[in-house]
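Tutorial sheet, problem 5. The two components below are modelled jointly, 229 residues in total.
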Amino acid sequence: EVQLVESGGGLVQPGGSLRLSCATSGFSFSFHYMDWVRQAPGKGLEWIGRIRNKANNYVAEYGASVKGRFSVSRDESKNVLYLEMNGLKSEDTAVYYCTRELAADGVFDYWGQGTLVTVSA
Amino acid sequence: SYVLTQPPSVSVAPGTTARIACGGQNIGDKSVHWYQQKPGQAPVLVISHDTDRPSGIPERFSGSNSGNTATLTVSRVEAGDEADYYCQVWDSSRDHWMFGGGTKLTVL
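Model answer (C-alpha cells):
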C-alpha cells in the first residue's frame, strides 16, 4: 500500500525556518518525481515545487511565490522527501501536502494527509 | 502567465448531471487533470490526461477538453459527490504546475 506521511508542521514566527518531512512507503521512491502542494485556510491548491528522480539528476523546480526561500530535497536511503522553508511569511500559512507524480506528468496519484504550518508572531 | 478559470460553485439535484468547466487559452492543447477534495481531506485524483479515469473512480466521472474549455462531468450525481473540484495543467510560460481556483459542487 502506498503511503505518504508528512510531519514537521507547527507554529513559527515570521522570518523563521521550518523543515517538513514526508515519509513514503509501498512504492519505488527512487523512480518517481515528488511534489509539494499547499492550501491556505479556506483557499485553493497551490503547487510549491518538485524534485525529479535520479535519472533526471534530482533537478528541483519551484513556484514563483516560494522560489529562493524554499528548497525541496530527497533522501533515497530513507525514502523521505523534504521541504526546507526559510524566510517564512504569514502568507505561507497553509496545509502542506506531499504528492507522488505518477509518471513525471503532473498526475498526482497519491497524497499525504497534510501538515499544518502556521506563521504568526 | 497562464490563467485557469473555474466557476466558484455548481449546484445540481441528485440523479442529474453536473458539468464543471475549467477555462484557459487553448487549454485543448494541454493535458488537464482533475481532483476532488472533500472537507478535511486530501485531494483525490478523479481524471487524468483529459479523459483517463483512475482505478476506483466511478464511471460516472468523465472528462473532456477542447478549445478553451476542459470539462469534468459527473453523471447521476450522488450526495457523496459533494466536494471541491480542481483542474490542473502545466504552465509552460513559468515552468510549473498550476491549479484552477476550484469549484464547489453542491448536491441540492
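Marking note: Residues 52 and 59 of chain B are 10 Å apart (CA to CA). Full credit if you identified this.
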